[in-house]
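Bug #2210: token dump truncated for Polyketide cyclase/dehydrase/lipid transport protein?
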Amino acid sequence: MKRKIETTILIDAPVEAVWSVLTDFSNYPVWSPTIREFGGIPKVGQRTKVLLQQPDGMRITMNPVFLKLETNKEIRWKGKLWIDGIFDGEHYFIVEPAANGQTRFSQGELFSGILIPFLKKMIDVDTKNGFLLFNAALKAEVEGKL
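Reproduced locally. Full output below:
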């Protein structure tokens, strides 16, 4: 089973300004309502602990492997619940230049695994709402620094 969610927001700032906030991993506890903490500086091919908090208050610590850290373009990681194939998620942030010096920020996740049919509400409602909250907080943080 597979499922994908994606959210997008326009940020009134250039890509470099968005990237600067997005990759200041130690500062997430100050502004992010959903990604509360990184256990270090992510590096491609390595695992880094990530503390997530859903809008309903549920907290989970993941230890995903980082797949991509492409400057001014994309951050991507993959996590799993217990073992491969149960409930896996490939999470991504993409920043792209948009009109008038703005940045289009996209956040999404590709879910797979046998638990997908049982977790539709969590994916389609809770996780998506968490993405929307994160996107709005990122926009406020970036635009507030200009």
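Output looks complete on our side. Residues 2-144 form a domain with the Alpha-D-Glucose-1,6-Bisphosphate; Chain A, domain 4 fold (CATH 3.30.530.20). Marking as cannot-reproduce; reopen if the truncation happens again.
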